[in-house]
Every structure is written in C-alpha cells, then in structure tokens.
C-alpha cells in the first residue's frame, strides 16, 4: 500500500475537446458550460442546479446568462429537466429502500443488552465464545467492578498499564483512580474544564418592533422586538450557513417549514415565549458559529497559532449574543413537551458541542429525548406530512446522540431507543435533491450506528478479570460475522458514498460512474492551499461516515491486539494478520485530516473522537516497543501512514486541550509518552 497521497490530485483531471474539433463546436461548449467546466476546458452536461463535474467535486456551479438563439429550445430543455428530475426521484426512492432494508437486516440490540456499572451482559451470539475476548486483567491491588467503556478499557490492559505506570508517578495515581472509579473519572475532567455556564453578558440591543398594521396583535400577545444589527441580510446569511453545515450533520429541521419561521420573525420581530423566535435565533447562532468556525482566526493564537478550533474565545464563542437571546426566550417555554421543544433543545445541544461543552450538550439532548418519548407515546403524527418527517428526524437525531454518549462516557440513557421500532426511519422523497442527499447519508449513519451497537454488546460489553489459565482468546466466529455485516453495509451504500481502500480512501467522490476510483483527493495529511470550499459540508459528513466505518473495524479486530500483547506464545499467524488489520484500520481517519482538521467547531461528537484517539495512541506506542506487535507492524501495517497518524492524533490533543478536559489530560500523558518534540520532528 502506498502511504503517500497523489501529489497532483488537487482536482479531477480535466478533459478537453480534441484538437481536431471544429471551432464552432468548441465555441458552443464555451458558451453553454458552467464556470468550472469553462475553466477546465471540459464539456459540461449542463445539469441544473449543478452539472455532473461540479456535483462530483462538491463545488459551486455557476452558469452565465444564456444568449438568445435563433432556435428556441425551451420545450426541449423542459423535457430534459423533467427527465432528470424523474431519474433523481427514482434513484432516491431506490436508495431509500436499500438503506431501510439494510438497517432492518442488522440484528437489533434489546433495551437491556448493554450493561453499565459493571453489570454482566450476555448475548445469544456471544454466550459460547465471547468470554474474555478482550480481558481487562487488572493487577491485584487494582481489582475493581468499576465500569469502563470500550475506549477506556485499553488503559487497564496490563501491558499498557505497566507502560503508563513506568512513565511517571502521576500516571500511577491516575491509573489507580481510573481502576477504582471507572469511566466516571473522565467525566470529572469535563466538569473541571467548564465549571461555569456560558456567559450571559453578551446580548444584542433591542428595539420595539413596529408593524405596518396598527391592529396587529401577536398570537401570544407578547410585545415583539427587533435585535439591533440583526438585519435581514444577516439572518439569510446565517440561515444559509446553518442549512449547509450543521443541518447536514444533525438534520432536525425542515427547510421549507423554517422559511415560514424566517418570514415570521422578519415581518413581526422576535418575542419571548415564542417557538418561532427561539428556533430562528438558535439557527442564526449556529450559522454564525459555522462561518466563524471555518474562517476566523484560531481560538487563542498565542497558545496554538495553527489551531483548527476557530472563532471567538473560550468564554465568548461565535454567535453567543444570539444564543443568549434564544436562552432568554426559551426560559418561558422550556418545560413544554412539543416537537418545537425537541428541536430547540437539540439546537442548543449542538451549540454547546460547538463549544466543546460536552456535558451541557448531553444535558440538553437528554431533555430533548425525554420530550421525544412523550411525543411517541401521546401524539399521533402523519408520518408522510412535513411535520411527521420533521419528527422522525428529531427522534433519530436524539437517539444517535444519546447512544454515542453512552458508548463513550457511560452516561445514562432515557429509554428513547425502545421506540426505534415504533418511529419509522427518516426520509422524504419530495425534498430537494440536496436534502435527499443529506437523508441518504443520514440513513447510512443510522445503519452503521446500529451495527456499532451490535459490536459493543457482542464484543466489548463484558469486562471480566482473567488469568492466563482461563483466557480463551478472541471469539473468532462472532468477529467474522461482524466483519461480514460491516462489509455488507459498505457494499450497499449508494455509489456516491462508496470508496476504495488504500490511498484512494481519501478521494471524493470515492468512485466514478464506471466504479473506478476518482482522482480528486479530498482529505490531506498537510494543508492544501488550493482546497475549494465544499457545498453542504461534504468534507465533514464524508469524513464522519468513513471514520466511523474504520472505527467499527478497529474495535472489531481489537481483541487480537490484546492477545498479541499479552499472550504472544499462543498467537497464531491468523491472529497476527487480524491484529495487523486492527492497527491499519486505526490509521489516518479523515476526521483528523485537512480540511476537516481546521473546522473543529463543526465536527460532530468531538468528545467521542477524543476518547478513542487516546486508546489508539497508546496501542500505537506499544506497537513500537513490544516485540510481537513490532513484527506485526512490519508485516501488515503501512509504517508511513502509522507515523503520520501519530502526528495527526498528537495534534488533535494539542489543539483540543484548550477546550476539552479529557484532551487536556491526554495531551499531558501523550506528550510525555511520545516526547514533546515528536510532532515537530515528524511534521
């Protein structure tokens, strides 16, 4: 496998008319092509709103105004557009059915299947073979029933515990505390990082709204107001920013319904105890954060001048004035159980996550989930109506957020997952093409999440103390079945979401129409000055989907790394190959590469990545010193990608330690473990 990215692949290789083409034909191409195809001298298929090339590249597609011609082709163009729309709808409906069928084929996880607080678990798929697949063999003084989540179990592997304990006395104290307290020790790092709530001081000046109709009385009979500086143009700009960034990652709103909300606040102003006002303000706050998080200077240039955490400051994040206005408005309606309440709480949670205030994120999302449960029990939705589609999106977003938190930080669940069979999957074929693409990718993430839930229960839910006499090795039959399911998920992805492994896994789109890898490199190890601005957050959404896939592959094969580290004398050739698969699966996840690396305020579930990067760095460090693991790396792992991954992950901790309590602790540990000059030497 080649470790390096194609150095010349900053875009799709341009085609050009043949030298023998008639000048008249070339002139026609130049007159009708979009600006991108015109610049590349490529024949444009003239698809609207974006041509094929711009769709593949994910860039803005601009057409010049057509010049009048002698031959009127209006009807012909209309027929062509209708054919394209019909084909798009047909493709979308087919993709929806495939993704829905895929989700239903993945065995579900019963509500009682995932244990917490050291509670034993069993699964029909694992009762005969899963015992001690990846033991947490803690030295005798540290024996404990404290529950550790999958990423944190690595810390108490004997080999890694010994390595960390040798490093410093503070590490020894921390390991003792982790063994006694479990994952809750990491929660203390978060509460200590953000002991105070977000500042309430920042606010926009208000002016009484004047309506052209002197008899206008708001339905809530509250006086409406305008916010000074929040002009119509800024509202439209922030809304557009939101729907092309956070909405792609957490699709909880309907853009058509939001247009009605926008018109209301533009015409009538903002009011307290008003759902429309609160939703609009939160959308504007998130839109502001999305712009600043991608374009503004780093959070604190004096600490980390190349930081990818951008915009505002620790206590004054972008959009805080708008967020505070929304919080004041929401205070009057915060205890209601309505769909709007769910949307507001989820939008608040997303804003908190953009500030890396993970427990605030969790608290808000839990409140949203509780309201979702009440709605599932008490309100009948027409699931084919715009409101019904919006409820489905809100429900599944809450479900995903809650489960990621439970997997990584062992935070309690509300029970929303018990209604997963009752609430149908999101999907509205009547949406715009852009929104259809969001829905397909969202369904793919739901399917992958369901599979990851299965992996956690079948492989990692149990945490027994063990010994060499009782160790029986990884449950190979279970692991083979999980790998097969993961590959099935990948094979059933729509073509535009698929990709090839190896160096081509950084390309987007992953495959061309004929199934061959494209040549446009989206993800880079180093910053690419020529990187275009991608529409609909293609870079972040694609990075999340692919990184989650490799995360799943990594935790499936991880028991073989445990075996190679602790029982090398009984490690077979097949075990070695599988351990190599685990290490290779942990390398160069797109979520830490450019351009996503510079947009950390927009990365979903930042807390989850930090927990897992901690374990990956420890395993990679051990792989350099341990004789058996070093041999596995030599035989099965791309060593250049391994070195680059170490640099990328150390950079993550260096960057995130400004705002994340676990990252702050991890940065200190990793800096000592790897040497403070490692990133600089390798970078």
UniProtKB/TrEMBL annotation:
Residues 1-10, 116-131 have a biased composition (Polar residues). It comes from the Eukaryota. CDD domains: fungal_TF_MHR (cd12148), GAL4 (cd00067). InterPro entries: EcdB-like_regulator, XnlR_reg_dom, Zn2-C6_fun-type_DNA-bd_sf, Zn2Cys6_DnaBD. Residues 33-63 form the Zn(2)-C6 fungal-type domain. Residues 1-26, 108-131 are annotated as: Disordered. Gene3D superfamilies: Zn(2)-C6 fungal-type DNA-binding domain (4.10.240.10). GO terms for biological process: DNA-templated transcription. Pfam families: Fungal_trans, Zn_clus. Signal peptide: none annotated. Keywords: Metal-binding, Nucleus. GO terms for molecular function: DNA binding; DNA-binding transcription factor activity, RNA polymerase II-specific; zinc ion binding. The keyword Nucleus applies. This is Zn(2)-C6 fungal-type domain-containing protein. It comes from Aulographum hederae CBS 113979.
């Amino acid at each position: 496998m080649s470790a390096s990215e194609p150095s010349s692949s900053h875009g799709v290789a341009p085609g050009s008319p043949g030298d023998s083409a008639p000048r008249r034909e070339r002139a026609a191409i130049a007159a009708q092509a979009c600006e991108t195809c015109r610049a590349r001298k490529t024949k444009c298929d003239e698809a609207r709103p974006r041509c094929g090339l711009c769709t593949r590249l994910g860039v803005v597609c601009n057409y010049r105004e057509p010049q009048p011609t002698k031959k009127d082709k209006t009807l012909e163009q209309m027929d062509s557009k209708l054919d394209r729309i019909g084909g798009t709808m047909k493709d979308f409906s087919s993709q929806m059915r495939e993704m829905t069928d895929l989700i239903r084929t993945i065995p579900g996880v019963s509500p009682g299947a995932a244990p917490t607080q050291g509670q034993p678990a069993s699964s029909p798929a694992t009762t005969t073979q899963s015992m001690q697949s990846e033991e947490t063999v803690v030295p005798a003084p540290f024996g404990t029933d404290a529950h550790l989540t999958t990423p944190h179990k690595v810390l108490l592997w004997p080999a890694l515990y010994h390595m960390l304990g040798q490093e410093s006395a503070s590490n020894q104290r921390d390991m003792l505390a982790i063994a006694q307290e479990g994952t809750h020790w990491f929660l203390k790092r978060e509460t200590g990082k953000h002991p105070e709530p977000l500042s309430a001081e920042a606010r926009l000046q208000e002016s009484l709204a004047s309506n052209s109709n002197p008899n206008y009385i708001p339905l809530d009979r509250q006086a409406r107001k305008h916010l000074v500086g929040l002009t119509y143009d800024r509202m439209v700009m922030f809304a557009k920013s939101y729907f092309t960034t956070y909405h792609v990652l957490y699709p909880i709103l309907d853009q058509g319904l939001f247009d009605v909300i926008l018109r209301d606040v533009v015409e009538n102003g903002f009011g307290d105890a008003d759902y429309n006002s609160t939703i609009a303000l939160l959308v504007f706050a998130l839109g502001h954060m999305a712009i600043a998080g991608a374009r503004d200077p780093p959070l604190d240039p004096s600490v980390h001048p190349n930081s990818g955490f951008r915009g505002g400051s620790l206590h004054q994040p972008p959009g805080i004035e708008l967020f505070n206005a929304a919080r004041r408005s929401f205070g009057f309606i915060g205890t209601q159980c309505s769909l709007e309440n769910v949307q507001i709480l989820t939008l608040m949670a997303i804003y908190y996550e953009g500030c890396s205030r993970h427990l605030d994120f969790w608290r808000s999302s839990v409140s949203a989930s509780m309201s979702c449960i009440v709605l599932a029990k008490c309100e009948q939705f027409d699931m084919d109506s715009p409101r019904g589609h919006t409820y489905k999106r809100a429900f599944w977003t809450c479900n995903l957020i809650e489960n990621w938190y439970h997997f990584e930080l062992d935070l309690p669940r509300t029970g929303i997952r018990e209604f997963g069979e009752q609430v149908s999957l999101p999907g509205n074929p009547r949406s715009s093409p852009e929104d259809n693409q969001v829905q397909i990718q969202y369904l793919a993430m739901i399917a992958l999440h369901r599979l990851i839930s299965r992996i956690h229960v079948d492989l990692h839910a149990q945490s027994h103390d063990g010994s060499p006499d009782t160790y029986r090795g990884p449950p190979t039959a279970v692991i083979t079945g999980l790998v097969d399911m993961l590959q099935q998920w990948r094979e059933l992805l729509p073509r535009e979401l698929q990709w090839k492994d190896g160096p081509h896994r950084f390309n987007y789109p992953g495959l061309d129409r004929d199934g061959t890898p494209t040549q446009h490199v989206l993800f880079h190890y180093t910053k690419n000055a020529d990187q275009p601005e991608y529409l609909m957050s293609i870079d972040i959404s694609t990075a999340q989907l692919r990184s989650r896939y490799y995360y799943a592959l990594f935790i499936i094969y991880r028991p073989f790394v445990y075996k190679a580290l602790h029982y090398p004398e009984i490690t077979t050739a097949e075990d070695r190959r599988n351990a190599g698969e685990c290490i290779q699966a942990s390398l160069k996840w797109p979520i830490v590469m450019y351009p996503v690396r510079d947009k950390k305020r927009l990365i979903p579930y930042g807390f989850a990545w930090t927990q897992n990067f901690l374990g990956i760095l420890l395993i990679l460090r051990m792989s350099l010193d341990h004789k058996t693991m070093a041999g596995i790396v030599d035989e099965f792992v791309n060593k250049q990608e391994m070195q680059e991954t170490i640099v990328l992950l150390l950079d993550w901790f260096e960057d995130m330690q400004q705002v994340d309590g676990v990252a702050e602790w991890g940065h200190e540990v990793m800096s000592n473990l790897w040497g403070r000059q490692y990133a600089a030497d390798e970078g």
